[in-house]
Design brief:
Elements (H helix, E strand, L loop, with lengths): L1 H27 L25 H9 L2 H11 L1 E5 L3 E2 L5 E2 L2 E7 L2 E9 H22 L3 E6 L7 E4 L2 E6 L7 E9 L4 E3 H4 L5 H11 L5 E3 L11 E4 L5 E2 L1
Parallel strand pairs: 5-6, 11-13
Antiparallel strand pairs: 1-4, 2-3, 4-5, 6-9, 7-8, 9-10, 9-12, 11-12
Helix pairs in contact: 3-4, 4-6
Length: 237
């Protein structure tokens, strides 16, 4: 009986191994039946539905400037690729772009990193747009307060000692949302106003694509903008 049990176990392991190999071959094959947004070997598509594979594709795109630029172009973003800026060890921009629009939504122009532009694109498509639809609004522009700024952090007690993430364009500050009807929803004036639900919805959704987000809920230094940062520990307030 024990011998038969061992044989059965080995057969089961062999079957599982075969299934894994067959699945891997199917995924890696150029004619894979899997949709691209379910295939981890394919590049990210901003417009595709979110799946468990999206995070892997997103991770890869944010770490490869060429893939990042390709994904943005396929989404319809308008931007210029610029030479890297190397002002100093503390102040520089790698994978530098000048972003002008995310599809039909104008931004800036703003000089930033490609991965910040891609994070904005994912936020616009999967956060801002659904929140606007739910509120009966249409966002046509993002107003910013800059991304790259060679400076140290600011605190409630004045200037800090460590360099800001803006010094490497690793963050961007969004101050308002322009609407199709000509209105502008500014965080400073409308955070607790008629469209507070929309503003809070887009704030919360930004935390899906940025690793550190500071809103007017955080402190007075952020009363007029959302600080969206690419690195951090998942802090969203």
């Amino acid at each position: 009986m024990r011998f038969l049990g061992l044989v059965s176990l080995r057969l089961m392991l062999a079957f599982v191994t075969l299934a894994v190999v067959v699945t891997a071959v199917a995924v890696l094959h150029s004619d894979s039946p899997l949709p691209n947004h379910w295939n981890p070997t394919k590049n990210l598509s901003v417009d595709a539905p979110i799946t468990p594979v999206t995070r892997l594709q997103f991770f890869r795109a944010t770490r490869d400037g060429a893939i990042c630029a390709q994904v943005l172009r396929e989404f319809g973003a308008r931007f210029d690729e610029l030479p890297n800026l190397n002002r100093s060890e503390s102040c520089h921009i790698h994978d530098r772009v000048r972003l002008r629009a995310l599809g039909e939504v104008r931004v800036g122009p703003v000089e930033t990193r490609c991965d910040i532009a891609l994070r904005l694109a994912m936020w616009e498509r999967h956060g801002i747009r659904p929140a606007a639809d739910a509120a009966g609004l249409r966002v046509t522009r993002l107003f910013h307060q800059g991304s790259y700024n060679c400076r140290k952090i600011r605190t409630s007690r004045g200037g800090g000692r460590t360099w800001s993430h803006h010094a490497t364009a690793g963050a961007i500050d969004i101050r308002a949302f322009g609407l199709a009807d000509g209105r502008q929803l500014a965080l400073l004036r409308h955070w607790d106003g008629e469209n507070a639900g929309f503003l809070r919805a887009v704030w919360r959704s930004s935390c899906d694509w940025f690793k550190l987000v500071l809103s007017p809920e955080y402190n007075s230094l952020h009363a007029d903008h959302l600080h969206l940062q690419a690195s951090g520990w998942g802090f969203c307030r």
